[in-house]
């Protein structure tokens, strides 16, 4: 019989400010996923090139890094509510323009690239600032629960968003998809607008090079925080096949845009389920060991997904033809199971990493470290898109996740062995 303490801890939602921020962020995130998947499909339709799809993420990498770092500095220098609202306004304006272009037929590949870059940069500032706000709204012992609730919202928006995007693109077109994102994004303003003023505590350092150097000096003295960043980059660089999904749906598994949405949603399904049953995760004290084991499971899941693609390439369970109208359903289901396992493992790692960062880092520097965290979380998948897209262009669609799975297992084992203190990190006595 399922015990209640196995389920997600809902105590953070008893804090009204956190609850409004959580709901608003979830609505905006759902709309954002509509646009992310729609832009991928849009570029693939215009170019027919998987590498061009991968370059959407790569093009936004440098602006996202700069915005994430600078946004973190702003969060440590000014009212965090105001910083988040301004950045959210930029995201909203760029999405409105994307919708207008789609309705008027003025969209081009370069417009899609440019607006994706603006969105990724502004979202980096919003996410870094919002993450720095959360520890000011709830007690420290509720931080793992807050991270698990974030996993629930992420799971819902990533599971519902891509699937809905695939259906909307297939049956209504791109303009309606972008427009719905505009409407849903209004929820983010509701969550942010109703927050109290949240100025950084402690010594405030003016945003600039000295502030950045101050954050870097802290990170050099924080081996546990530093290693969790490195481990996440490894996992996301070599285990992020998202850019391959449009081509997989078009030529390998079949089903076109609907398969693309289904595969992406499977990852989110794993995130959602692992968050719903995250009660035991919140009670784990050796969070460094938990991160290591979760990422090893993630690497194994990527190997399993690669084997599904190998089976598809060999024609296993294939119908008479594989295209946008005819799909290899048995292998699509198998691929979704592997990706759900990957999503669950990544979410468990994310809960531990987020809790470690928010509990072990002082408030006066939390914005800058959250900026680095967002750069890692968002930048890793972009490096992964480059890795997967470039390698698939010169080999085949199943080779990037196959090689990546082995690389993750090897590198994680070596890095943690070289830093044994990471395994003994104690959540009751957080040391960065």
Automatic annotation (TrEMBL):
Q: Where in the cell is it found?
A: Cell inner membrane
Question: What GO MF terms are annotated?
Answer: transmembrane transporter activity
UniProt keyword terms in alphabetical order: Cell membrane, Membrane, Transmembrane, Transmembrane helix, Transport
Q: Which Pfam families match?
A: MFS_3 (PF05977)
Q: Does the keyword Membrane apply?
A: yes
A GO CC term attached to the entry:
plasma membrane
Record keyword Protease present: no
Annotated TM spans: 21-44, 50-71, 83-104, 110-133, 145-169, 175-195, 229-252, 258-282, 294-317, 329-352, 372-392, 398-416
Q: Which InterPro entries match?
A: MFS_dom, MFS_trans_sf, TM_effector
- Note the topology in the membrane: Multi-pass membrane protein
Q: Which domain of life is it from?
A: Bacteria
Q: Which residues form the Major facilitator superfamily (MFS) profile domain?
A: 17-422
PANTHER family from the xrefs? Answer: ENTEROBACTIN EXPORTER ENTS, INTEGRAL MEMBRANE EFFLUX PROTEIN-RELATED
Under which name does UniProt file this protein?
MFS transporter
Q: What is the native source organism of this protein? A: Microbacterium lushaniae
- Organism lineage string: Bacteria, Bacillati, Actinomycetota, Actinomycetes, Micrococcales
């Amino acid at each position: 019989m399922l015990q209640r303490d196995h389920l997600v801890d809902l105590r953070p939602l008893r804090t009204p400010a956190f609850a409004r921020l959580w709901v608003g962020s979830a609505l905006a995130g759902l709309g954002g996923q509509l646009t992310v998947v729609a832009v991928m499909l849009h570029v693939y339709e215009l170019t027919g090139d998987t590498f061009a799809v991968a370059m959407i993420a790569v093009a936004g990498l440098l602006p996202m890094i700069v915005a994430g770092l600078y946004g973190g500095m702003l969060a440590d220098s000014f009212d965090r509510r105001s910083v988040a609202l301004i950045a959210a306004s930029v995201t909203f304006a760029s999405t409105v323009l994307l919708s207008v272009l789609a309705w008027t037929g003025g969209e081009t590949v370069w417009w899609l690239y440019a607006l994706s870059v603006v969105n990724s940069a502004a979202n980096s500032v919003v996410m870094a600032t919002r993450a720095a706000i959360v520890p000011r709204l709830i007690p420290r012992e509720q931080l793992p629960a807050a991270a698990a609730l974030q996993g629930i919202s992420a799971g819902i928006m990533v599971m519902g968003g891509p699937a809905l995007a695939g259906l909307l693109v297939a049956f209504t077109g791109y303009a309606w998809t972008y427009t719905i994102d505009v409407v849903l994004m209004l929820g983010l303003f509701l969550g942010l607008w109703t927050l109290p003023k949240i100025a950084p505590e402690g010594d405030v350092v003016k945003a600039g090079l000295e502030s950045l150097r101050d954050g870097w000096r802290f990170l050099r003295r924080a081996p546990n925080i530093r290693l969790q960043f490195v481990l996440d980059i490894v996992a996301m660089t070599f285990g992020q096949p998202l850019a391959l999904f449009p081509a997989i749906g078009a030529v390998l598994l079949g089903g076109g845009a609907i398969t693309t949405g289904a595969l992406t949603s499977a990852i989110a399904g794993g995130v959602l389920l692992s968050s719903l049953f995250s009660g035991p995760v919140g009670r784990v004290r050796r969070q460094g060991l938990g991160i290591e084991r979760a990422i090893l499971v993630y690497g194994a899941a990527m190997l399993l997904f690669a084997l599904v693609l190998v089976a598809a390439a060999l024609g296993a369970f294939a119908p008479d033809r594989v295209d946008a109208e005819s799909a290899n359903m048995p292998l699509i289901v198998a691929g979704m199971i592997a990706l759900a396992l990957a999503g669950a493992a990544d979410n468990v790692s994310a809960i531990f990493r987020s809790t470690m960062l928010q509990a072990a880092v002082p408030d006066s520097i939390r914005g800058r470290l959250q900026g680095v965290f967002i750069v890692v979380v968002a930048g890793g998948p972009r490096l992964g898109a480059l890795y997967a897209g470039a390698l698939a262009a010169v080999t085949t669609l199943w080779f990037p996740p196959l090689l990546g799975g082995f690389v993750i297992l090897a590198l994680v084992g070596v890095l943690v062995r070289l830093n044994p203190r990471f395994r003994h990190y104690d959540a009751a006595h957080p040391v960065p």
